[in-house]
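From the shared-data thread, chain only:
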Amino acid sequence: MRGSSIEATLELWASSLRVVKAGIRPLFSQERVAASAGLFLDGLLGPERRKTGWMRAEAAGDPGPWRQQAILGRGRWDADALRDIARDYVVETLAHDDAVLVIDETGFLKQGKASCGVSRQYTGSAGKITNCQIGVFAAYVSRRGHAFIDRALYLPKAWTDDPARLGGARVPEGTGFATKPAIALAMIERAIAAGVPFGWVAADSVYGVGDIERELRRAGKGYVLGVNATHPFRSWHGKRPVAGTAEEIAHTLPRSAWRRLSAGAGTKGARLHDWAYCELADLDASEYDSERTGP
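Structure, as tokens:
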């Protein structure tokens, strides 16, 4: 790459970063707080693997971590408004009608008991039950790229049933228990209400039950939702007879029904999965939305 091309690329990055910082500026009432937020954003893009307060302060030229800690702890600004600004920026850059909204959760390992939502619970990050926080996330994926557009902290009942603990962690008043699927459904509804263009929702078996499937049908959205091996299926409306659990149906299908497809390249090569299609029913769109027609 020629030197001029490198300079142009760096200037494009710098210009884009200035636009982002200008977009979040109205969230902060004081200029010095907005400046600290900009330095915090610089730090998130920095090369350090562990972005502790002291490391961030050193990179920002601050004498200690207090300014940047204040943004996350003592500062008063609307985190949900920042979420919406980030979402709109992603949509402006990556929007496509066939985009996929991917729902998944991840765990953040912790040692103590004070972090909001921390509890002994299962996390795929560790592959076991351990002390951690769980966050549910929505990522926007299109042929133009991918980025997160929503997030929410999962609060176990041990937290939501303890008002004193919620108050000590400064959880907003009125916050009650919500399952991970309920959190995911709220994210999907927010994306639809904001006019985010997408054609599909993908999620694992945690989200493949309950209200999510029904609401996606009503919205006219496609979906690929994982289910447990014990999840029952049966065909109706004159389709080829299919009945049983997912595991039972999979075992009775002939080898010719399966097709091996790649989900993209991974660290160990192509991520291959075997797929078989079973038609269960034609669902009339008018049952879910009076403005839609057809199966």
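Residues 78-225 form a domain with the Nucleotidyltransferase; domain 5 fold (CATH 3.30.420).
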